[in-house]
Amino acid sequence: MTSDVETLSFKGLGLNQRILATLESLGFEKPTPIQAEFIPVAITGVDCIGQARTGTGKTAAFALPILQKLDPRSEAVQAIILAPTRELSEQVDREFRSLAGKSNCETVLVVGGRPLGPQLSALRKCPQVVIGTPGRVIDLLQRKALDLSQVSFTVLDEADRMLDIGFRKDIERILSSCPEDRQTLLLSATLAEPVQRLAQRFMKEPALVDLSEDHVVVDTIEQFYCTVEHEQKYGLLIKLLLNERPSQAIVFCRTKRKAHEIYAKTKKNLPDVAAIHGDLPQKTRDRVLKQLRDGRVRLAIATDVVGRGIDISGISHIVNYDIPESADDYIHRVGRTGRLSSDFHGRAFTFVTPEQGPELTKIEMRINTLLHEYRFDGYNAFQSREVGTVSENETFEPTPVSSSHWDDILSDLE
After folding, report:
1. Which of 157, 190, 186, 160 is nearest to 52 (CA)?
2. What residue ranges of the chain are covered by domains with CATH 3.40.50.300?
3. Fold designation for 4-210
4. Phi and psi for 376 in degrees, rounded to 5?
5. Could you tell me which residue ranges the DEAD-box RNA helicase Q domain spans (predicted)?
6. Cα(67)–Cα(44) distance, rounded to whole angstroms?
7. Less Cβ around it within 10 Å: N or C end of the chain?
């Protein structure tokens, strides 16, 4: 039986001394809930499904058991880790390398949007771990540049998202290329029916670690909706930015075209603004993500390319300029904020047109929470009527800012 101290640290999870020393050097003091529950099960070698929202430490939950069991003497690929996007794959690769510490583990990142030559060269050096997107992995299998015949570990990270964006056939083909006696670890924020079918087909009596919560959006996020006519959305966005004065915000749009349109409107006058969506070159997307992490971009206009899994801790505000297509997309979008610390409350706002009431209701049912309406004093978000004023009892205090000239610029944009 472990002591109370051990249960609050990584020492009670079955990890070896080398890994514990690496975690200590990285400043990891205690496991997150998904790590505390998932790691001891995964270390036993059984197939395991981990259900938890994004931003809860799922990468370390699957990486640490794999690192403990890898054979550094082998020159074959022992682990294949699949993720839905290039950005998330790169994030997993960075964290895996960091957690590997001074071990002899070699990883290779294989994603589209990157030159193929360096990836082929890296694979010839016999890495133990391959991390990438399903499309590029299939390409490498077809070229016979990647051999998965000796894989011991397969990981499906953000499995629900991979299936949502059409990778089912690629995933099935990749898993079919791996030995049947491998260990499969599946991580997902939701266990929708397609995820369950995939697990039934390719996993052997998997253990389930369920860290989903009744309130699937964390308590450190204050959530609001704003009713607005479609033609008034941009004016409402400017009014919201002026009223809230975010330290750092992401504005989500449904389409790449709309994201570019809003970015083009704001970039002429507003400082520290950037766009990130699938039509941009990979180098540009990488640069924007780095600038977001470094705090050099204050406002990002984005599509759902950054809606899942991307770890940016300083986001104070999320604005759903377009209501998400699904309730799960809403969960992932607003999960980009409220992550700085337990006493840091992020704020999320969703623009809802009069005909989108049923879509808002679906979101509220999914998160088991009623969103509060956020209203502006004297601002007309409709063609024919004034929006009501904010009650004096409501706590809608603006967030302090470092760039005071935003007020003047935003007023000019209104």
Report:
1. 190
2. 4-210, 221-413
3. Rossmann fold (3.40.50)
4. -115, 145
5. 8-36
6. 13
7. N
